[in-house]
Amino acid sequence: MPPWPRRDSVTLMTAVRLKQHLPLLLLILSAAACALPGAIPTPTPTTAPTPVEAGRLVVTWVESGNLMIWRSGEEFPRRIASGAVVRPVLSPDGAYIAFTRGPQGSTLALWAADAEGIAERELIGPDALAVDVDTAQYTRQIGQIGWLDDHTVLFNTVLVPQLPGPGGGKADDLWRADVLTGEATRLLPDGQGGDFTISPDGSLIALTTPGIYGAEQGRIRLTDAQGQAMTDLLRFDAVSTASEYAFYPGMHWLPDSQALLTAIPDPDLVYPAAQGQPPRTVALWRLNVEGSATPIGDVPATFFGLPRWSPDGTWMTYLEQVGDPATNTLGLVLARGDGSQPARLLTGTAGSLEPPQWSAAGFTYTFGAPGDLWLGRPGAAPVRFPADGESAFALTWADPTTAVYATAPTAPYELRLADLNNPIPAVITSVGSGTPTFDARRTP
Description:
Helix content is 3%, strand content 45%. The protein is mainly β. The strands form 8 sheets. Strands 8, 9, 10, 11 and 12 form a 5-stranded antiparallel β-sheet that branches. A 4-stranded antiparallel β-sheet has the order 3-2-1-33, with no helix packed on it. The protein has a 4-stranded antiparallel β-sheet with strand order 4-5-6-7.
């Protein structure tokens, strides 16, 4: 079996561990709302996003190991699969749910069910996943899941040690399964796949592998939907995480499927720069599907606040270090997509700011400490989201203007619906067990 990437084993520095200081953040936000910089050109439009055309909202979640579903227009939730369900992922049309299954949260199998709860089937189980695995040492389990189209699921796997301790990790492979036929196929073997991102038109798959810190470069490649026609896009020096985990750069597709954006940190960004040395930065790249790679800028982002682009690539947000690193003070920055025209919106201590999450609207993003979210738009002051005093966890955008969230980090909690054009959240259901594990999508 080809070796999977080894891990950087340096102990995580306590100086960069996140600590929550929410009261300080709230004071800072109050001041920042009145002092937003005006240097950044305001996008058009600057008002609230236009609501999407009427469609059906589909929400699926896990409760007591069962797969539940609710669709707008239905009075009550329904159970569509029973027992040992771990994580659900909705198809683009909302007609199917791919979900992992296994005891005690082990993702030993991939299943699929239709939204009616009739056609439930296993796509791949432990026996088929055991290919090229020393089963006395490891189990191969389902990792990342993504829908290529309404009926085709892509996934990769992780190798989990049979006994507690180090070893294993992401297998960097690639598989696909058809929910109609139940057929599952390994497209790329261990070490030849990686974390993946599917182009908006579904024709291409970007793959990234992390390399080995100090020894082997990571790389970003492109393949077609069949795992063929591989193209190298970028090789980069492997990045330390100061932990056993490997660093996989995020990949952001542009809407026309002709290019993607990525941010590659200095290999030692996780460590403070030595006194008198220039600060380490994060390089920004545009990778074109024909194979060319163009550097477009760099930003002083922190390792735990790397750049995130708006859907159209016009804007980005990131967290930067402010002043002496020993103070653990961070700034939330909004900039153009190439890192130019940066403007610090507010500051807070490490742990009181999380990297913003962009909605599909392209100019709306949420940020804050766990449970205490704020809504921002270029050219406007941030406001509490969903509403003052409303806690929100695991927020997921179902469409450009609609978000689904949990009211607590563990059960009991409610799943609620927040609309940017309606200040009053709506309750979807109450969940009595587990942690929030759900997916939501507005279908045509």
